[in-house]
Specification:
By secondary structure, this protein is α+β, with helices and mostly antiparallel strands. The protein has 17 helices and 25 strands. The protein starts with 5 loop residues before the first helix and ends in a 10-residue tail after the last strand.
Amino acid sequence: MSFLSEESLSRLSRCLDEEVCVVSIIGKSRLTSNGSKAWSIVRSLGQDGDAQRGQRSASDCPIEVYMDSSNKVLYLHLVSCLDSNHLLALVSSGENVADLWQREERIHTRRVLFLFLVSHVVVVCHPSSQFDMSYVRLFRTLDTLRHNVHPRVVDLSKSVSASLSSDWVYAGRFCTPRVLFCFEGCPLELKPSEERRNEKKTEHPTLKKLQSSLSEQIYRMLRKSYVITNNCNEKLLALPADDEFVFIHTACCPSEDLLSVFLRQMASGPAARTSSDAAAESASAFQSFLLRHVHRALAEGFHDSVGKNPVRAVFEVPLLRVWLEYAHALFSLLEGVVGDKLLCPLVALDEKLSAKLGERALPNALSAYKDGLPPLYTRQLHLARMDEAQRVLSLQVRGPSLPDLLVRLEQACTRHWADGRQMCEQRSLTGSACVLELHGDERRHNSKAVRISASDSGWKQAERSDPFALREANWAFYDDLADDDTLSQRVPFEEGHGEPSAAGMMHADLPPGSVLAHPSWALLRLSDSAMATRGLDQPGFLSGMHLLHAWEVRKGVLAHVGVEYECPRGHRFLSADRRTDVPLYSACPCRKERPLLAQLMRLFVHSPEPLLLHPRVQPCPGWVLFWPHVPLPWELAEKTLFVLRLPCVYATAEGVAVCPEGKALSECKLLKGWLTVPSARPKGGL
């Protein structure tokens, strides 16, 4: 496994026998710098030097290589998830951001450790002019990792090359790298003006103070956190005690591809470099700042240990051939040794914190779900409470553990609901839900909704439970509440012959000849025909609303007709408007504010001569017509008080007709022509 491409190795082959100072560039890049922290290096090498640019990949952290043969410097530029352009390429892949960041952070840590073990100088770049405290954590993590892999690195050093010195072998590196900090976010007021630039005074007086302040701040933080000590051999990095280690750019890289800039400069010569003088001057100043450390490394080395009796620092400048052999072997070793098992406890601090906060917040979120719940509750309430619990969890937890915690919370809430608290919720034919605990067919549903209804003839009233089956709604209740024969007589009406072939009601879409499992309509003769004139002496009628109305069915012939509505509270009232379709629903006069909706339930008819009954009901707009399962029209005998009881519920195999709201209510009706006079007396019938 290699971090260099074949092309890069081929170009570096000219310098294999030269001593080189290795400078690594890590840190974060500005969005306007096209993701490159090495823009100032590229500008300098555009005048004198060779650039070996490694191939980039969106799946790892590539290392770009630049060789400055004139100054004997090998530059290694790490492109990682901390670089804006590379991060955008990673995110565009569509992978989960939390998982992507965890993986890339581990790769980045492994690559940076490698660079610290093979470099003389490490340049830490940052896009602002403020020190980022996350570097302190990174340095401490890298130092711990270095100590963990040190025995393996020593064994590798012994086997790589005989030209390695004993100091190099047992230290696991040829020097303790000196770290320099490069800040690109110079405050606007500190940038050099045109006059100062013309006077060749590129450094603002206050800029020097800012550099000194940052240097003091960084040294104090790294010292107090034990990233650096008096003995540089024991630590990951060192800071120069007698030289500057902070540089602030006074101009930024232009927003264009750096390789294109470099190639254009090489082709056009010095005249083409006048378009970005500020950036060029800043790059030149940084190059001078950096080469001062490089020349010292090549001449006498770094001696960054401090104290009364400073320890001799391990420092060597290897041949490029030896360095390449060692770097390749070390890169392969770290890729295999420094795996997730070793990195996770050190790098995954965000995951640890997120998980710890999650374990504390999960019980609170579950309590928010459980607080104030009834013994049994619906799926709607369950989902609403679960959304509230997830909101509580999201407010208290951040980071990569949140998605898994949300799943665990959902599972815990669902288990709590399913543990004897889940309401059945089976919908009745009127739309109410069963309020019992979730159960099977062995137990009857119950919505706890109760209404008062009258019997087929209207002589009796009783409470009835909300029906969940058509048989219960249109037949069973009325069959249990049958009248005495002295009050009424049932007319053979809607009685099937043979095996039932349909479970519902007779309607326009039902095939002819279908046999119903049970009747939904009932026709009866009332014994007391005198009620046609004096009014219905039955329970439930509102005062003054029990009188049948006289209809002139033939010139000089009057019939008495009553259209009865019944509300859920058992209130009954008659209407007799035959000029239009009869509404299936009407407001009950039992109360003025928010009146209950009464449904058309019975038709009373008394006539001195025979009439024809032909009821057809449209229960909802756009629905099929319903009628009794008998040959229609049906003849009603003269001088007899008949009552036709209509269905309580209208349904087909596709579903139940639900009472609509608003203007659509007027489309629910008993069609005009339900009662007519025969043109000639038919044979048979009543």
